[in-house]
Structures
1.
Amino acid sequence: MSPMKFNIPNNLDWELLKRFNICTHSSTFAEAAKKIKTSQGALNRQLDTLENELGKKLFLRTAKYRSMELTPDGKDLKNIVDQVFDIISKKITRKIPSTLNQERKKVLKIISTPGLSTTLLPNALSEYVHFNKEIRIELSAQVPPKKLDVGEVIIRNDFLPQNNLKFVKLCSLSMSFYASSSYLSTQGVPSSFEELTEHSILTTHYSNISSTDKYAISQKKSIIIEPLFQADYIDFLVEMAYRGHGILSLPDLHPATRNLIKIDSIPAQNEEIQAAFLDIAEQDSSIYKFINYLTTYLERNNHGN
């Protein structure tokens, strides 16, 4: 089968193909895992992901276990991947400067919200990579993923359920309501949370609940507020607030609070920020090291518990 007839998605993770290639040139999965410097359990999950992405079974299975023997589709993919890696080794690798041929840095994947990614995390991550040269960080600001994998940490205040997750409280952030002077001069200052129903509201919506609904629940208020703008991108809402379009809930440490007016008549609320990760035997030790660092850093900088 030619590469053109084997439907490989354009967005397929290249690392999955590299791991498949190593497996096909190893006698056991344990040997392959040792070459990759990961656990056999983590490697099996990555092969599951590859098979799901391709929609094909690549390895024969016994009643319970994946065999090292390839299926016909697995043999086709092996031929394709072997050709690709042969081209890379002959025509590309020798052109790469020797400094890039050194051992790759370990990847730490962090998933958080756009707000935390621009306020709480930058200074902490900058210091961390300065003292941990072997680490490369991939930060993704998005809604909570359906599940976390080994080597991933999620930092936010709401989570989707998953087995074997360990939660670590990082800090509490004070959240207040803010608006531009132009908005408050024309629409007036609300004297209570209940009066927000008479105002234009800009609200974040990272998962299945808006920021104003979360505030109402925390204050035990049965109020539903329809927002003028709702988004999971905090900078968009900040820009709308600058333009006088409404009232926005922000952490008090957000840079935008310096240019907006705090509405003191509505009590601030504290939101607990947590880190979550898979607490299993296959988890990389760098995850535990990073969590310990981050809790210490936040306490040192007055963001701790």
2.
Amino acid sequence: MNFFFSWLKRPYFFNHSIKYRLIVPFASGLFVFLFLCVFKPFRLVELHGNNFVFYSFGVGVIVVGVFFITLFIFPILFKGYFNPDRWTVGKSIMIVAISLALNGFFARLYSLSSKTEGVPTESLSVFLLYSIAIGTLPAILLCVVDERVTRKKREKIALRINKGSSEIKDPPKPGTTISLKSENNKEELIVLISDLVYLTSEGNYVSVFLKKEGGLKEAVLRTTLTKTTIDLNAYKNMVRCHKSYVVNTNYIKKIHGNARGYVLKSPIIPFEIPVSRGFPKGSLKILVNNS
């Protein structure tokens, strides 16, 4: 059971771009319309003449409307839930389940309000099963295809950045130090800017990682990463790439892209540092020093 809940909380890819959110409703509506017209399931074969075409078209329109609600209206109403950096497997499953449930609900209302003889009028639970039967497979295929396309695109961007020349920055003078202070100014940490590798935050504390013989040394200040970032604004090589990380780009040698986003790699940092999904794509090259 713990494994299942851990799996639901795993970070997962979800395309929040306007283009993708426009494609999904119309592609899904078209698929449902064609599926119903071609296979005539759920007793639609009993409809006379072209009635099943008009009925199928109405159901397709409902699918388009439902996905517009879940992909455009919901993100406005529930901004925190739809945060790209906090998207998980569980959230993806929840959105698909809500969409399928709404499709079944509105499809039944449409059937009950239709004056066409022979349309399905089963219970709501049956219509929900209809929705699941038709919608599950295309939903899975759409996610798989979009994940693959996005991964390939980001891999190409990362490869181009890694092969390209580094963004020219104004390096600090040798021996330049900086004073980092705690929130209440009672603690002070004076370090060489050239030794500053990266910073990360946990609650009201910021961990500062410095280059020392044999690896990295950690120092902790009671402050916020936002305040510390402001203190580092004068140094172009210090970039906040994520809500929880500020990196010294002089130590970043590669960027890697996948469907979930981008990560930074450094020979001195023992793990990959994530790049926020909201980080400007045009500025990704400033994060890497491949000279």
